[in-house]
Design goal:
Layout: H1 4-18, H2 37-47, E1 48-53, E2 59-66, H3 69-78, E3 84-87, E4 99-103, H4 106-116, H5 124-139, H6 147-160, H7 169-181
Antiparallel strand pairs: 1-2, 2-4, 3-4
Helix pairs in contact: 2-7, 4-5, 5-6
Length: 182
């Protein structure tokens, strides 16, 4: 009969093995249905962010913010219920209520970006860098960040700074107009 320390060790090892992605994604079907990909891509381009939060852990994140709760809930439907809808600045003096949809998982972000990358009018460089980061993390999940991953985190941060954006204002106005239609 194994003692308690051996039992805990075996349980810990089984948990670590089950949390590794081993090259497979938990999403077996499309997150974004083909008929919604254009709308999702333009909404992320106009109202959203593609980033990697927590530079020490490296968690990719897609986020769409708006002051209209219905808009965010409709977007949540477009992505087949992936991610979650949250309240931002609610009931704070001097600020409008803010709502956002967010997806924070390596395989989830990777899957959404691969499905919409061909439709993104802007933020394509950021999306490609985040996709490369996700591919690298999925190949050795659970281990410390490699130098390539740290470089990709820095690259995404630099690309997301306003002064480094090379996207035209006309593209952004067009993207905001389309997101208003949704």
């Amino acid at each position: 009969m194994p003692n308690k320390s051996e039992e805990k060790l075996r349980l810990l090892e089984s948990c670590q093995k089950s949390h590794r992605y081993s090259g497979r994604y938990p999403y077996h079907s499309d997150i974004v249905p083909p008929e919604n990909r254009l709308a999702v891509a333009w909404t992320i381009a106009a109202e959203g962010t593609i980033s990697i939060s927590s530079p020490k852990k490296g968690v990719p994140k897609l986020r769409v913010s708006n002051t209209e709760k219905d808009f965010v809930l409709r977007f949540h439907e477009l992505v087949a219920g992936a991610g979650g809808v949250f309240d931002g600045h609610k009931n704070r003096p001097g600020r409008k209520d803010d709502y956002f949809w967010q997806l924070r998982s390596i395989p989830g972000v990777y899957k959404v970006l691969t499905e919409i990358i061909d439709f993104l009018p802007i933020k394509r460089q950021v999306a490609l860098a985040v996709m490369e980061f996700c591919e690298s993390r999925m190949s050795h999940f659970g281990f410390p960040l490699s130098q390539l991953e740290k470089d990709l985190i820095y690259q995404v941060r630099v690309l997301n700074e306003r002064r480094h954006r090379k996207d035209g204002a006309e593209d952004q106005r067009e993207a905001k107009a389309l997101s208003a239609i949704i």
